[in-house]
Amino acid sequence: MKISKKILALILCLTMIISSSVVLISSADDSDTAGSVSTYGQSAEDYPIVFVTGIGQSYSYLYANEEDAQADIAANETDRAVARWNLFCNDFSFAFKEPATWFAILRVVGTLLLSMMTGHNFVSKSAVDKLVTILFRYNTVDENGKLPPVVVTPRMYYPVSQYTEEQRDNFYRTIPCQDVIGDIGEDNLYCFNYSAFSDTYNNSDDLNVFINDYVLPQTGKDKVILIPMSMGASVVSAYLQDYGTKAQVARVVSIVGAWYGSDVFADLIEQNYASNAPELLYNGIVSDLVGEPWGILVNVLLRIFPKATLRSIIDEILGSVVENLVLKTPSLTALIPYQNYQRIREAKLANNPELGYVLKTADKYYQAQINLGKTVTNLHNNYGVDFYFIAGYGLIFGGYSSDYQFFQFFKHAETTNSDEII
Q1: CB contact at 8 A, 52 and 192
Q2: What is the pLDDT of residues 222-260, one digit of tens each?
Q3: Which residue from 278, 274, 297, 272 is spatially nearest to 287, judged by alpha carbons?
Q4: Strands (E), 256-398
Q5: Of 376, 343, 342, 365, whose CA–CA distance to 199 is shortest?
Q6: pTM of the entire structure?
Q7: What percent of the residues of the chain are helix, what percent strand, and what percent coil, each to the nearest 5?
Q8: d(CA 34, CA 27)
Q9: What is the rounded CA–CA span in Å between residue 350 and residue 354?
Q10: In angstroms, rounded to a whole number, what is the distance separating the alpha carbons of residues 180 and 191?
Q11: Residue 25 three-state SS
């Protein structure tokens, strides 16, 4: 099944401008808490549109120092940046300048070789933890949910019509709506960017400022249309929780939004693998993810390890990534489905004093998920907010782009739809 971006862009446009539609949002478990809500469109209004990006749809930039970062922010440029990425920092040159990195690598490699020779897992957890901490330094937030000051995720406080060439390229590369943009007008089109590694409620507060201090004054309107995509739904859900009753939203058009989190993301945290995960490791998928030439070497090395040993090693590595990166990031814990949250909370968050700031945000967002149906009902019935939902069906993870192949390893990949429709 091949989906045309042009067709999807047209669907998106029509969804926003058609004024009579019926859609449904429902909880999988409890209709009283998450509820089921039917919404009916009102007369069309020329409201400005604000895209709220999902994972991989906003670009972050790394700078050699804070002065360069601030200079580029002031000049609305990225010329001084030394690296750019849309998810993980892809420049590890800084790490290889530090003796600690090489020491950690030697420890990991040494224990991998020992594991290879003996058929048992001797990989050092402390060495893996150290290496993960070093390599993901620029994706790690502090206790305030902020990335290091040398990492900047630019936010454009003006419509797409005023974007620079680079900003336009980034926008249309990740949100391919250019074929129908003439029906809307770039002067009425905005995009709220944020790093996937952040704090959901910081982002929702910033979205409130973005709307009130920039979008509405610039357009002269009193309401906006919000279009959250994928992870962006968590930001909009938090925004509606805290600011929804300010009556500044006319519509919410959700594009495969993660309103209730992601089962596959919960699988990652709890290490629930797909039944065919061992076979996937040996059929070349890892080498495809890594790319040539190193992917070929990785594929050869994987075949040397017995399956049980390899599974144990992967558990160790993924467990370290979850412990040292994922669970320390409030925006990522917001992707835990409410059905799984209490179990993960007790097992992974509650007893770790270092995660107190994450737990506070995660608990609040859990309530947002539980009350989502009531929130939507209230906003529709009492504040006139219309809700539209576009979802993908039959779109398996990794079936249409290499960006999602990694998720095929997890238990719910075969039953949970991916957001490759974007």
Answers
A1: yes
A2: 999 999 999 999 999 999 999 999 999 999 999 989 999
A3: 297
A4: 386-390
A5: 365
A6: 0.85
A7: 55, 10, 35
A8: 5
A9: 10
A10: 16
A11: strand
